[in-house]
Amino acid sequence: MFRNIIYKMKTILKPLGCEVRGIDLKTENRPEIIKQIQEDVTEHRILIFKDQGIISGDRHVEISRWFGELESTFYKHKKSPHPDVFRVSNDENEGCTGVGRSGWHIDGTFQPAPFSYSLYHMESVPKEGHTLFIPLTELIQSLDKDTYNTWNRAWMVSDRRSSPIHPLIYSHPRTGKPVLCFHLGMTTEFIWDYKLPSESIASHEEYEELLDSINSKINQDNGKYIYVHKWEPGDFIISDNLAVGHFAHSSTQAPRSKVGLRVLHRTTIKGTHPPKK
């Protein structure tokens, strides 16, 4: 295959993701390679580029533009290498802390169209500080009929003021496969059967049950669908944000004195397709 002539890929966890070797993202600009990477992200949902060294903020942004217009809605940190790069850390003097810990999610659920891609680079790798990913299509396909029907009735409302209302289950705009628009830590309420005559706001008990149901299914069978990424120096990840849920492990906030400094840079690409049934 073309990609194997130019770079090598290795599946990390069926059915999710691949490691990529043989590409230097600091200098790569060939149109045919960029196109292949774009196609591979859609197919595999996560690409983990190994041995990339340190990628500057400017270059991180350049790579991000392969996938569309950047959208930077996050808090700015004084040590961020670029205005469009979100800098997170386990040390508040080095980056924003506590990020990604409120629950499993995709990025940008508070937007009319959630972010289409997220790109991550670990500038400083600690002894611990994993990121967890889960394929959303396979999660949905694993549901029993009653659970699927319940999730499929639900629409989520983000905790940000004037946030749009999104269906919990919808079709991915590029692949057509079922995916989730969800954030277990930033959802204020669920609405049943939105825009139908039977529309109603979920009770507090129903709200809690649905959050628990999603979390339980993600962790079913000892988390068999979860990929735990243990960061190594030089890792750069490009993910299809709409197809993959993620969550920051508790160790991401372990004290610097115990695990070393953790500095992660992230960019997000503006969504172009609001979730639709």
TrEMBL record:
Q: Where is the TauD/TfdA-like domain?
A: 17-256
Asked if the record carries the keyword Metal-binding, the reply is yes
Could you say which residues form the signal peptide? none
User: What terms describe the molecular function in GO for this protein?
Assistant: dioxygenase activity; metal ion binding
Please give the superkingdom of this protein's source: Eukaryota
Keywords of the record, alphabetical order, are: Dioxygenase, Iron, Metal-binding, Oxidoreductase
Q: What InterPro entries is this protein classified in? A: TauD-like_sf, TauD/TfdA-like, TfdA_dioxygenase
Instruction: Identify its protein family.
Output: Belongs to the TfdA dioxygenase family.
Protein name listed in UniProt:
TauD/TfdA-like domain-containing protein
Organism equals Aphis glycines (Soybean aphid)
Top-level taxonomy: Eukaryota, Metazoa, Ecdysozoa, Arthropoda, Hexapoda
